[in-house]
Amino acid sequence: MANAIPLIDKIDGKERVVTSIVLPRDALQRIGLTGEEKLRAVTVFYDDEIEGMKAGDIVVVNTEDKDIRGKGTFVLDNHDRTAIGEVQAVPGSHDKMMLVKIGGNDFEVPVGRLPIVGRVVSSVLVGRPH
Q1: CA distances from 72 to 31, 55, 116 (A)
Q2: What is the pTM of this model?
Q3: DSSP character for 36?
Q4: Distance CA 112, CA 102 (A)
Q5: Would you say residue 125 lies in a domain?
Q6: pLDDT in tens, 37-61
Q7: CA 89, CA 71: separation in Å to the nearest integer?
Q8: Buried/exposed code over 24-51 (b: 16+ C-beta within 10 A; e: otherwise)
Q9: Domain count of the chain?
Q10: Residue 97 forms beta bridges with which residues?
Q11: Of 57, 64, 67, which is closest to residue 130 (Cα–Cα)?
């Protein structure tokens, strides 16, 4: 059995469903997820590789996991479209600032200025061997 995951883009902070992708239920169970209602798929738009993901690939995001206390790969809403980057809380900021690495650039921003869509839990490599 398969699950349809909405493929989204965000414009001005509002989710827009572009299409959906279908993943087998056992693929979701292997990554520890059971409810597809928490999941969204997002296309990678930048050219720099992050954890093996490149432009054109699709990532699956758990929208309930926005905890930046541990370093991770997250989808962020930059109010134009979504971006994928490595994010972690800035030490000593009491989780009010986050260190973001996107496209070879590192910067600190207040939490909320670049809203987190969710944590990347899986990727679909488009047009490349897995």
Answers
A1: 15, 19, 12
A2: 0.80
A3: G
A4: 17
A5: no
A6: 788 888 887 666 676 777 788 888 8
A7: 8
A8: eeeebeeeebeebeebbbbbbeeeeebe
A9: 1
A10: 110
A11: 57
Q: What is the DSSP string of 54-106?
A: -TT-EEEEETT----SS-EEEEEE-SSSEEEEEEEEPTTSTTSEEEEEETTEE
Structural domain including 71 reads 2-120
pLDDT per position as a tens digit, 21-39? 887 777 777 777 666 678 8
Nearest Cα to Cα of residue 120 among 69, 54, 60: 60
The conformation of residue 23, written as its DSSP 8-state character, comes to E
* Amino acid sitting at position 115: P
CATH number of the domain bearing residue 85:
2.10.109.10
Residue 86 resides in a domain: yes
Give residue 128's Cα distance to chain centre. 20
